Amino acid sequence: MSLGGIRKRTLLGATSMAAFVIGCLVADFDPNGRLCPCLSGYTCDAALNVCVSASDSPGQETLIFEDEFNGDLSRWRPVADAGAWRTMNGEAHETDPDAKAPLAVIGFANATDYHLVATLRLLAAPIADHAVSVIFRVPEDPSQPRSYCSWEPGTGAMQLLHFTPSVGSGASDRQTCCLDAGSGALSPVTLHVRVRERNVRCWIEIDGISRSSIEFDSLRVPNGTFGIASYFQPAAFDSFRAYAISR
User: Fold this and answer.
1) CB-CB neighbours of 208 under 10 Å
2) Domain 64-245 is of which CATH architecture?
3) CA 24 and chain centroid, separation
4) Domain ranges, ordered by start, for the chain
5) For FRET with 108, which of 61, 148, 190, 225 sits at 20 to 30 Å CA-CA?
6) Dihedral, 74, 234, 237, 154 alpha carbons, nearest 10
7) Mapping DSSP to helix (H, G, I), strand (E, B) and coil, where does residue 29 land?
8) What is the pLDDT of residues 75-91, one digit of tens each?
9) How many CB atoms lie within 10 A of CB 114?
10) In b/e form, how buried is each residue of 182-194, taking b as 16+ CB within 10 angstroms?
11) What pLDDT score does 22 carry?
């Protein structure tokens, strides 16, 4: 499957233009969330290589990536199995019911602290143990560990898990909390992941109400990019946003 490029809706814009916009400031240019080096009044978040206001207090969130899937998937890369990802009608669809298909945002390899927000809906009836996920702390090497916040709509399970592809079944450090089976299966839901240092919190919004929050305090992977995934569960992602969290 081709992930060829047309423009994406991201705050960082095209990589090739990053140096230019810093050197040639226009009237409506907003330095917040742009690549370092920074203008006066802004400091560089070294973990993400982006500028944040010097007045930001610890915990301040700054939007650094946004995709509403109105173009193609040129800002994304398959992590392992490419699945059957494509964009359609302003959504990113994964339609292969036999695929384990994580998809990561290109770049942000050194990202550490961030809040991820993904809105999605199911494309097929939920089946037990099949899942949709937000992935985080994803390394460039697909054989290395990565982490998942997963929702299994067929059972109602929410899981935080650390995944090492080369070790047995791969899943360890699993934390589970349950909703009623089938909750949210008929309407869009929003998955949240908030990662700070070694702590991560994962929760789901159903009909605008936050549900089933789970937390883990011993993340093993110190940094990495982020993305979305389908585990044998066809789904459509309406939007994905990433916010840097200042320390």
Assistant:
1) 6
2) Sandwich (2.60)
3) 31
4) 15-60, 64-245
5) 190
6) -150
7) coil
8) 999 998 878 999 999 99
9) 25
10) ebbbeebbbbbbb
11) 27
